[in-house]
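Limitations

Structures in this collection are predictions, not experimental determinations, and the ligand pose is part of the prediction. Treat each record accordingly. The example that follows, with adenosine-5-diphosphoribose as the small molecule, is included so readers can see exactly what is and is not provided: the inputs are given verbatim, and the output is the predicted complex.
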Amino acid sequence: MTITNADLDTAREWIAQARRLCVSTGAGMSAESGVPTFRDALGGMWARFDPQQLATEAGYRADPQLVWDWYASRREGVAQAQPNGGHVALAEWQRRHPGRMTLITQNVDDLHQRAGSDDVVCLHGGLFVDRWLDPCPRWKGGQPPCDTSTATPGRPPHCETCGNRVRPGVVWFGEALPGQALQAAEDAANDCDVMLVVGTSGAVYPAAGLPLLARQAGAKVVVLNPQPSELDDTAHLVLRDTAAHGLPLLLT
Ligand code: APR
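Predicted complex:
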């Protein structure tokens, strides 16, 4: 895949002139870091499972150990991965142009953060953040009284007193996105001059609605994806390249 010089010059010009650049990334952003995209067939022992079953509250309640193990293996995979040239190009551009970039991601890995990007808007939560599955019946506000001091390594931690379980702090299918993150993403989409969409199929809303929001607000929309996506028709320019190769060319 290569981007034509004409398209590259056009996209670079739009970005150079942009007062505000909004970047929205999906799983393809981390593919060249060795983190499988969400709709890649799950590898190895997980191949027989459907992520859309595992990444749900019902799936976790049905088999906490299985889902906990799946997230543990994903955490291990991400911990061994390194940010790729695309993550680094985004972080470097943000550093060189303070206050001009809002970076939004659907990804739950921490590769943008480890590359040095600041204030990443994490629409789907994070792999390395846990939270309680249920509100504790004894909770009167402040810090929940539940504790996991007796947790067994490798098993889903739970509270010995009320039985509440710890769950991964990611947004599961059917769950609402964190309100503050979604508001920040919509504000950035409405206020940007260029929306750069990287490595997402555009299959899942509300994240997939951000490029249209930006276009309707007058922004130029640029899609960077080696494959066709559901967002191509919303784009003013589609660049057939990968994140790790294309972003360093774009963000000079
Ligand atoms: N560079 C850029 N894009 C790539 C690369 C790459 N090296 N490799 C693959 N892609 C593209 C694919 O062409 C595809 O369009 O990345 C996209 C990945 O699509 P999905 O797997 O659907 O991931 P994503 O769009 O992030 O999924 C959205 O859906 O399943 C939920 O919560 C989950 O955050 C996820 C959301």
